[in-house]
Amino acid sequence: MQVGLGILPAVARNPAVTAMEVGTLAALAPGRLLPGIGHGVQSWMGQMGARTPSPVTTLEEVLLAVQRLLAGERVTMHGRYVHLDDVELDQPPPEPPPLLAGVRGPRSLAMAGRVAGGVVLAEPASPSYVRWALDQAGRPPEFRVAVFAALCVAADRAAAYRQMAPWLAGLLDDPSPGLRALPFFEELSARHASHGTRGLATVPADWWTEIGPIGTLDDAAAHVAALGAAGVDDVGLFPAPDVAVARTQVDQVLALAGG
User: Fold this and answer.
1) Residue-wise pLDDT tens digits, 99-148
2) Of 75, 114, 179, 207, whose Cβ has the fewest other Cβ atoms within 10 Å?
3) CB 208 within 8 A of CB 214
4) Reading across the β-sheet that carries 118-121, which strands appear in turn?
5) What domains lie within the chain, and their CATH numbers?
6) 76, 83 in Cβ contact below 8 A?
7) Which helix (H) or strand (E) holds 150?
8) What is the C-alpha to C-alpha distance for residues 95 and 23, in angstroms, rounded to an integer?
9) 147 with 135: CB under 8 angstroms?
10) Chain centre to alpha carbon of residue 158
């Protein structure tokens, strides 16, 4: 089983400590770990007193430092934000994992294409967004793509759309690059502005299938297949927030994985 860590904030811990933690997990599960490092929620980083003037430069320096340490190098590095003096892991992992950048925008994606082993794209990561993100990254060879997706499957796809419409409305209040990459983004935004959440529940089915694994099980399978065709290697499915409901989704996840 592949294990993804999600996204660690670059500035929440020293890169040497991050490398030790990632190295230990990678040694325990060789070839199975997918660690991601991102900018972190900038407002949270500010509350922690860890926000830097240039998040892109910070993340690039952290990615490079952690990669070198995981590769077993003795690292001395004095960048703008990362300072290491003769640091080496006592037990680097025998198989360093690909270090994924949890990023969204064009500058960060271009940086990831230069220095990271891949990307983690936050939801909603449509096939359209994946293709755009890979273009921004320069489509480097052996570049791993992982995405997050909110899962909602129902026997009646209209019920799934009604359930997810408030989630989509919340995203439209502050659109991410992932939303803006949708080929129907302007129409979707206009629908939201004029008809609110109820209007989103009745947009065309193919729009919902592009947005996420939402609708019937066949709709969800079509979304996952389209992600694979766009270049995605790993899909992390977010279950429902209600634990009782989430337990019922296990069989759906197994069905999607088997398909």
Assistant:
1) 999 999 999 999 999 999 999 999 999 999 999 999 999 999 999 999 99
2) 114
3) yes
4) 8-9, 36-38, 100-102, 118-121, 144-150, 234-238
5) 1-102 (no CATH), 112-259 (3.20.20.30)
6) no
7) strand 144-150
8) 9
9) no
10) 27
